[in-house]
Design brief:
By secondary structure, the protein is of the alpha+beta class. It contains three helices and six strands. Helices cover about 25% and strands about 35% of the residues.
Length: about 150
């Protein structure tokens, strides 16, 4: 475990009910033209969602190791708006859009400055250890309910 807080990985932060997660585009994220490869936007969004849950107080590892269950992407709709390029500083902005008994929908925007580069609606289903849909833990639903709402309110 890292003891010095300055040496810990970046987790992002909440501003109102939006989670903000900064990403820099590295060479490994791009194709031969220097543009971010389309699948890498999903990696950026996955990291942002995982850290959003962590910062909000949802411990996915404990739930999985305790036999309670885990999240899996059940549906994904992504729209690519503009290309991101090598060394761009991006911001993944995430907010809870919808809460269901066994899933939640998270809207994510990948921003470069004030410009939307890509955006997606991601449905994360909570599954039992045998892979069947299961109700999310009540405490987690309460966290999502606090985070849900108009993302522009602070």
């Amino acid at each position: 475990m890292v003891k010095d807080a300055q040496d810990r990985p970046f987790e992002g932060r909440f501003v109102g009910n939006e989670h903000r997660f900064a990403v820099r585009v590295y060479f490994e994220d791009t194709d031969l033209t220097g543009v971010v490869y389309h699948a890498n936007y999903l990696r950026f969004m996955e990291r942002a969602r995982s850290d959003m849950l962590r910062v909000a107080g949802i411990n996915q590892r404990d739930a999985q190791e305790g036999g309670e269950g885990y999240y899996a992407v059940a549906d994904l709709a992504i729209r690519y708006r503009r290309p991101a390029k090598l060394e761009d500083d991006l911001l993944v902005v995430s907010h809870v859009k919808e809460i269901r008994a066994a899933s939640c929908v998270i809207h994510q925007r990948v921003m470069r400055g004030g410009e939307v580069v890509a955006e997606a609606d991601v449905t994360a289903a909570f599954l039992s250890p045998d892979g069947r849909p299961r109700r999310q833990p009540r405490g987690w639903i309460e966290i999502f309910e606090r985070l849900k709402g108009n993302p522009d309110q602070s």
